Amino acid sequence: MSRHPTSGSEADHLWQMLVGLVWETRGEWRRQVSEVTGLPFSRVRVLRRLIDAPVTLKQLADMTSSDAPATTVAVNDLEDRGLVQRQPHPDNRRAKLVSLTPAGRKLIELMHRTVRDDAPAAVQQLSDTDLAHLRRILEKIQRHEP
After folding, report:
1. Closest CA relative to residue 45, chosen from 90, 12, 77
2. What is the SS3 assignment for 109?
3. C-beta of residue 84 within 8 angstroms of C-beta of residue 100
4. Which of 41, 54, 60, 127 has the greatest number of CB atoms lying within 10 Å of its CB?
5. What gap in Å lies between CA 91 and CA 118, rounded to an integer?
6. CB neighbours of 9 closer than 8 A, spacing ≥ 6?
7. DSSP character for 8?
8. pLDDT tens over the chain, length 146 residues
């Protein structure tokens, strides 16, 4: 995990440390997710965004930080696999809503049942007091997110 001590505020440095920790520990989890689902991780990212409710292609592109053509390719692929479906938007005739099919929902449920997403050892080894402080800080940050 690299640090950049010559630029930015203390908050920036702490943020970079957090992002680095998460970034460095997600590779194995992503590999397992792809193995279990049989899908590239980019497709799983799309499916996971549809768990709560159908969204438009534009919303899906924004949620996955993808451009519209890449999102369309991903949705086409997932639709061909029977994991998502497009439906007319009830209020906008030019838009389509993308939603999970029962098969798509089952695949996400399988992923959640099969692939463990445990905290890294360094986090698991924190004391109860440190974990309580970390929870308090993260909840405070979450309350300020839009």
Report:
1. 77
2. helix
3. yes
4. 60
5. 41
6. none
7. S
8. 444 455 679 999 998 998 888 888 888 899 999 999 999 999 999 999 999 999 999 999 999 999 999 999 999 999 999 999 999 988 888 888 999 999 999 999 999 999 998 898 889 999 999 999 999 999 998 888 66
Q: Which residues contact 126 (CB under 8 A, 6 or more apart)?
A: 134
Chain-centroid distance, C-alpha 101 = 19
Q: Phi then psi for 14, rounded to 5 degrees? A: -65, -40
Among 28, 77, 84, CA closest to 53: 84
- Whether the model clears a pTM of 0.90, i.e. scores above it, the answer is no
Determine the angle formed by the axes of helices 10-25 and 27-37, rounding to 10 degrees: 40
Tokens 């369309």 appear where?
72
Whole-angstrom Cα Rg for the chain: 19
